[in-house]
């Protein structure tokens, strides 16, 4: 009866005070005492106790999601911006993007071409972006860095390998580097917002030159090389931007085509609406020749593969046709959707 009474007492203790009795059993195990020491009490062996009662099981915790932050002006959004954010996302699980305010851009670089609303729409429309912080500062100040770490739960601050200097010559990311919370990505060569503005200015200058020639005035000719893109397309880059999957067997496929030159907020909106009409959005990109034929010889400003990457980076796009025909024929439809 003593054994039975003690046995009941122990099991009552396990039920009502599991942590206390768990500690006693762990102590016994550490001292090398067998559960047989309790002679006939009927206490189960430690492994059995762990699996059934769960006293010593570690609480399973989900892996902490790494949140990374990257900021920028993102003026005249192009595939270089998209590739930077793609690389940033690869360094974590969630990407938070800060869009620098108009005032900060003016103070540090000069007036932006696009408004804050347009730039926000473009950044939010990228497939790798999870959250957006509007009106971010140009430099990572101590106050803003604390806000990123404490309020937005940011683990690392990301920037490209190109230097980002303030007007006084100091590093805009010096504090993040000092805190040991900075990571770096490679800059995408061959394109920049400055380069795109240059192309636009050359287009306007060339158009003015042609008008002058029609009026019998002499103007210095513009080298065709000045308009040649420095972008070198590779299959690897296209794969990096692609969703790498086709439509499901019963998916409703939506097709839309266009030039999508100088990808902008209006493009994001129309692609969003097109995607809402079905399950899979296929976008056709017209060749440079077709665009030039219909819009004038100075177009497009961005070349076919540049435009393709900009469209592929949009979160609403599933696949693109690089060099789609102008007319959507029955034969084309059969080839696409077969």
Could you walk me through the main structural features you see in this protein, from its secondary elements to its overall organization?
This protein is globular. It contains 14 helices and eight strands. The chain has helices at 2-16, 18-30, 46-53, 79-90, 102-108, 116-124, 142-150, 174-178, 193-214, 235-241, 265-275, 288-295, 304-312, 330-337, and strands at residues 67-72, 94-100, 131-136, 156-160, 182-185, 253-258, 280-286, 319-324. It is α/β, with parallel strands linked by helices and 338 residues long. Mean pLDDT is 81; it is low at 1-7, 14-59 and 221-226. The chain has a five-stranded parallel beta sheet with strand order 3-2-1-4-5. It has a three-stranded parallel beta sheet with strand order 6-7-8. InterPro entries: CCT, Cyt_trans-like, Ect1/PCYT2, Rossmann-like_a/b/a_fold. Belongs to the cytidylyltransferase family. This is ethanolamine-phosphate cytidylyltransferase.
The outline comes out as globular
CATH topology of the domain at 67-185: Rossmann fold
Biggest β-sheet strands, sense, barrel: 5 strands, parallel
Which sequence of strands runs across the widest sheet? 3-2-1-4-5
Q: C-alpha Rg, in Å? A: 31 Å
Which CATH architecture of the domain at 67-185 would you pick? 3-Layer(aba) Sandwich
CATH class of the domain at 67-185: Alpha Beta
Total helices: the number is 14
Structural class: alpha/beta
Could you list the spans in which at least 5 consecutive residues all have pLDDT below 50?
1-7, 14-59, 221-226
Query: Can you identify the CATH superfamily of the domain at 67-185?
Result: HUPs
Please bin the fraction of helical residues.
40-55%
Ends apart, CA distance between termini? 81 Å
Family: Belongs to the cytidylyltransferase family.
Organism: Eucalyptus grandis
Keywords: Lipid biosynthesis, Lipid metabolism, Membrane, Nucleotidyltransferase, Phospholipid biosynthesis, Phospholipid metabolism, Transferase, Transmembrane, Transmembrane helix
Pathway: Lipid metabolism; Phospholipid metabolism; phosphatidylethanolamine biosynthesis; phosphatidylethanolamine from ethanolamine: step 2/3
């Amino acid at each position: 009866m003593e054994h039975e009474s003690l046995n009941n007492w122990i099991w009552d203790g396990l039920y009502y005070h599991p942590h206390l009795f768990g500690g006693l059993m762990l102590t016994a195990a550490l001292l090398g005492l067998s559960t047989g020491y309790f002679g006939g009490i009927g206490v189960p062996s430690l492994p059995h106790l762990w699996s059934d009662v769960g006293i010593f099981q570690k609480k399973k915790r989900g892996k902490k999601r790494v949140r990374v932050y990257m900021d920028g002006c993102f003026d005249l959004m192009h595939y270089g911006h998209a590739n930077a954010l793609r690389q940033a996302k690869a360094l974590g699980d969630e990407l938070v993007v800060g869009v620098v305010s108009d005032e900060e851009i003016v103070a540090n670089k000069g007036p932006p071409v696009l408004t804050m609303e347009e730039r926000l729409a473009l950044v939010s429309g990228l497939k790798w972006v999870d959250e957006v912080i509007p009106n971010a500062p140009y430099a990572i100040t101590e106050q803003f860095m604390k806000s990123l770490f404490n309020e937005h739960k940011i683990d690392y601050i990301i920037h490209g390998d190109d230097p980002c200097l303030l007007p006084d010559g100091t590093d805009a990311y010096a504090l993040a580097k000092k805190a040991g919370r900075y990571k770096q990505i490679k800059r995408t060569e061959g394109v920049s917002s400055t380069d795109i503005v240059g192309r636009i200015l050359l287009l306007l200058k060339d158009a003015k030159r042609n008008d002058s020639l029609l009026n019998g005035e002499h103007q210095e000719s513009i080298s065709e090389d000045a308009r040649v893109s420095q972008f070198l397309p590779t299959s690897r880059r296209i794969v990096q931007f692609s969703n790498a999957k086709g439509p499901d067997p019963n998916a409703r496929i939506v097709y839309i085509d266009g030039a999508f030159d100088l990808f902008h907020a209006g493009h994001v909106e129309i692609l969003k609406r097109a995607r809402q009409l079905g399950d899979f959005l296929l976008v056709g990109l017209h060749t440079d020749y077709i665009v030039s034929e219909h819009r004038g010889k100075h177009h497009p400003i961005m070349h076919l593969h540049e435009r393709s990457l900009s469209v592929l980076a949009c979160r609403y796009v599933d696949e693109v046709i690089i060099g789609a025909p102008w007319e959507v024929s029955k034969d084309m439809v059969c080839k696409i959707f077969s």
